[in-house]
Amino acid sequence: MSRPGGVRESGAARSGAVPARGPAIAVEGVSFGYPGRNVLADVDLRVEAGELVALIGLNGCGKSTLLRLVAGLLRPSAGRVVLAGDDLARLSRRATARRVALLHQSAPAVPGMTVRQLVKQGRYAARGPLGMLRDGDDDVCARALGDVGVAGWSDRMVDSLSGGERQRVRLAMSLAQDTGVLLLDEPTTYLDLRHQLEVLQTVVRLREERSLTVVMVLHDLGHAARFADRVVALRGGRVAADGPPARIVTPELLAGVLGVAGRVGRDPEGGWPVCYPDHPLAPEELLRNDNHIH
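Structure tokens predicted for Iron ABC transporter ATP-binding protein (294 residues):
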């Protein structure tokens, strides 16, 4: 059985990548909350170099917060995040940005900016404020534009693009950071099915070509089961399930994490799990499923 994208290649190290010492990402006993609201509680997660991991769960379960903690945009109230052996708390914001890139779920409009100008913003961590003033693309920007297939759009205005086109450009901007770790927060939000598949297949291809470690938040469990090496399910700020899709994507996961009754089959060609959600569960049914997620 083969998964989409084929076998991972070793690839040459990127200038922004740091040789891994242990897992690429280690989240160790991390808790985080806002005043009056706990978001994450004692979360442990290891992501090995080269893995593609999908985070799933209901809105508010802590998926996006976990990505922001790994990206260094938030600091845990307890525990720590380690990138390639280094405690994130000891790294500056700019040093962290040289190691991990985060594609946010949404981004403000960028009127008056071309595709080339937006993608160049990804070079800030490497080039600094003065370096950003230099004209022209460096090799990393040119590669990012080419790898995502948007080099021909370089002089187009970003606000003239469709949603799917803008998402590809934002992915190129993240690649321009030239990091070894790529975090994607709901990269398919607001996209139609065609563009969802286009973005996810591009991520899988780039993971292989660039030897990236990828963690992405997805709402569609079917996409997670098809494209990820591992699925990590969050519920109530804790890890409820973690493992390969073939093992953990079950009717119990649908019920206990996503709150729906449903069935799980197998794709006849690729072999990955295929989900058939039937109906939302009532609150009393959710309680019965609390201890049956494996």
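The radius of gyration is 19 Å.
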